[in-house]
Amino acid sequence: MTANDNLPDLPPMVRDSNLVPPSLPPSSRLPVQTEAEFWALYRRSLQNLGDYWQGVADSFEWMGGWPSAVPLGGDFATGYRFFDGATMNVSVNCIDRHARAHPTKIALYWVGEDGAERSWTYEELLDTTARFAQALADLGVAKGDRVAIYLPNLLETFAAVHACFRIGAIYNIIFSGFSANALADRIVDTSAKVVITADESLRRGRPVPLKATLDSVLDRLESIEHVVVVRRTGAAVAMRPGRDHYFDELLAATSTRADPVAIEANEPAFIIYTSGTTAKPKGLVHTGTGFLVGTYHDVLWSLDLGPEDIYWCTADTGWLTFPIFELVGGLAHGATMVAYEGALDYPTPDRAYELIEKLHITKIFTAPTFLRMLARNGESLAKAHDLSSLKLIGLVGEPLDAKTWNWVHDNVGASNIEINNTYGQSETGSAWTSSGVGITHSKPGSCGLALPGHAFEIVDESGEPVGPGKVGYLLLTQPFPTMFRTIWNDPERYRAQYFTRFGPNRYDTADAALIDGDGHIWVVGRVDGVINVAGHRLSTMEMESALLSVPGVAEAAVVGVDDETKGQVPVAFVSLSANASEITEDMLKQKITDEIGAIARPQNVYLLSTMPRTRSGKIVRRLLKELVVDGHTSGDVTGLEDPEVLAKLEAELR
Q1: Residue 276 — pLDDT band, cuts 50, 70, 90?
Q2: What domains, with CATH codes, occur in the chain?
Q3: Residue of 353, 275, 269, 270 whose CA lies nearest to 314
């Protein structure tokens, strides 16, 4: 008998998922060694959140005002401040302190899609960062000025971000796959003084003209005074004297290292924009100190990252996953980071396996879609490489289905590999649910447990807490350091969007979730992803899980479309593994019917050759819905991993 046996209404994907003990031993880096101690620490942390987070922040070097007399003041409703009056510098804590202790240790390995390789030691990272910070200051960038970073995954991206931290400039990383208009919108909103970009990047063997894209809108960007260009491919690009500068030439002309500026713990450090596919993009404002403290904590619990690790976060630097788990949270632990430029399955399907084997990567943070891609390619490809160095895979973005979880566990990495699914948002600035690596049990499909220092509720439409096994609205009831503080230039939208439905003192994630009998959190989709079929609220994630349990199904996505009779009906999209030709649409409809009930039977199931995905690995369900409803897509699609896939899918859906 399990704890879930007393919850008869659990969805099958939750009911059938079993607790898996940790594969790795407890780490001396973590403050607890057993699951009972984890729960005890969690309860204590909520009794005085300020003291808990101040204890975490004691791990860092502070410049003044430490320890803070008020670790946490205020709340969501009135505005909150962590470590009021204390000052520090993020770049010092991510780079300087490691360079002092281990100057020749490799900080960064970089691998280009074309096979080019470079690396920097911690001393080289410090020198480049500090001199580039001085170069920015010489160009007139001062504390509080905005800097736009329009770069792919390069060594110079790390230096650019931490140079801004060093002098107190507020930076905005802009995804290098965005269109010219999307780029311009973000620069106009922040009134950036400087843009840092590259001549080109490479994606699936093709050059991506970053400087040319920027040039096409520069006449609309009145705030821009200087453009800094990293030479990636060496392509000839237009350079306007006095305005445009090559990164390497600026460094060659700058011998002075900028001193780190003392930044108060609640001052803004960077802006990250939401995708803006359905409304004006929101510029989420994060503090540097809070982001450092919280991401360090997140990486500690979810990855147990240490100086001995060779660690790869596969995300693009333009998505907050990369700053959380590598640029800041990863570097804070002093490990060796891997940064990869291109597509994870190019030029060959085993590109990722090649990197793991060659660099002896020990830990990876990625998206579930990446693992489904590996499973789709079959075990023979995995077995052709020595993956024994790999000890842990962390995940975020969407739940990982049990079938893929088990395949990866059996076929990828060492025999004791640990797989840890987490949950977070750009707004939360960290993945606040997770397994405690080496300590707590995991469950295929779940998002783990709320980490210490994070208070939440799951409530019904009236705001009352629901019991275990019941789907409700997921709310955060107390702030934590990585949470965003406002929306840039639009504080009214901040309040209206996140603190209206359930009052001014509970943050509305807009996600639907449940807690199972073992305390694991299951995020079953966006609130608008829970569709209403003839009065029945159904989780699209639950339907996707049923489809993914079918042998031969590689990927699945479900959306709700309007229906005159039922209000909404589900429509499913499926891509198959190479040897799964016998699967039919009727078989897949029946699987959902058997698992969930006739009310969930899809109106249609479309068998596709692939899915539209972002570079961070998320399936863009909005585009699938547009293809079946309107016959075409609308809006900006340059954030896709492969925008050309849409024409192919449009033809397949006719």
Answers
A1: very low
A2: 121-273 (3.40.50.980), 534-652 (3.30.300.30)
A3: 353
Helices (H), 304-401: 321-322, 351-359, 368-377, 379-383
User: Quick one: pLDDT band at residue 536, thresholds 50, 70, 90?
Assistant: low
Token pair for 262: 């003392």
User: Rounded to whole angstroms, how far apart are CA atoms 573 and 626?
Assistant: 13
Answer whether 495's CB lies under 8 Å from 482's CB. Answer: no
Q: Is 175 left (phi over 0), alpha (psi -120 to 50) or beta?
A: beta
Could you give the residue ranges of the DSSP H alpha helices within 246-359? 247-252, 288-303, 321-322, 351-359
DSSP assignment of 93-114: IIIIHHHHH-TTSEEEEEE-TT
Pairing of strands 472-476, 536-539: unpaired
The three-class DSSP label of residue 152 is: coil
User: Alpha-carbon distance 71 to 4, whole Å?
Assistant: 39
DSSP string, 416-461: T-EEEE-EE-TTTSSEEEE--TTTS-B-TT---EEPTT--EEEE-T
- Give residue-wise pLDDT tens across range 425-442: 999 999 999 999 999 999
- Cα gap 448→436, rounded to integer Å: 8
Q: What is the pTM of this model?
A: 0.88
Evaluate whether 280 touches 104 at the Cβ level (below 8 Å): no
Residue 434 CB-density burial (10 A; 0-12 exposed, 13-18 middle, 19+ buried)? buried
**Chain-centre distance for alpha carbon 430:** 8
Tell me the residue type at 567. G
